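Tip: read the tokens left to right.
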């Protein structure tokens, strides 16, 4: 009973997320996994968060299905960063409205973030990243071992049983020379 209760609490408060895409590089790479605290009470500038993309962003095809992961650039009451003010068409020194955030990807040239879809409502935040998890590794090794293949031909002609024994060092013909200097027949 206690184990079930603990599992239920963990599932409702924590979420494991796998990062897809390059928008958070170099901090997070494609395939990295992170642990997210759902409904984080405090989210501050610099925190990495998981959120639902704003409805307009998905409708315009700016983001894919599912959650996105970004860094908080400014929160409610913070000044809008200069690099975003121009894109958002607000005067420099404007303040982020209550209940909203501005988010940025760490890899800004490829990231789709608040520079494209504007302010993000607090209601869209799923949670705050609290720590990285071990990277998921497949059960099968990425590079299977290479088998060494030994030729069964010697100087362009098939090897006979005696020749194989001689080369392998077995049988009555062992040690009678190397295959490179085998006598011509």
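Filled-in amino acids:
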């Amino acid at each position: 009973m206690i184990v079930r209760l603990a599992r239920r609490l963990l599932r409702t408060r924590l979420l494991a997320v796998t990062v897809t895409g390059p928008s958070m590089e170099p901090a997070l790479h494609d395939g990295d996994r992170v642990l997210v605290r759902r409904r984080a009470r405090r989210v501050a500038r610099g925190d990495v968060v998981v959120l639902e993309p704003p409805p307009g962003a998905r409708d315009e095809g700016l983001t894919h299905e599912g959650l996105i992961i970004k860094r908080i650039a400014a929160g409610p009451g913070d000044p809008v960063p200069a690099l975003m003010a121009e894109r958002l068409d607000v005067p420099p020194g404007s303040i982020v409205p209550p209940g909203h955030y501005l988010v940025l990807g760490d890899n800004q040239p490829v990231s789709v973030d608040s520079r494209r879809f504007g302010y993000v409502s607090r209601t869209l935040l799923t949670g705050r990243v609290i720590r990285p998890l071990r990277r998921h590794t497949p059960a099968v090794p990425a590079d299977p071992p290479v088998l060494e293949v030994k030729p069964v031909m010697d100087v362009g002609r098939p090897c006979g049983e005696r020749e194989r024994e001689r080369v392998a060092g077995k049988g009555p013909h062992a040690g009678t020379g190397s295959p490179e200097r085998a006598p011509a027949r």
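The helical segments are 2-13, 55-59, 82-88, 114-117, 161-168. The longest helix spans residues 2-13.
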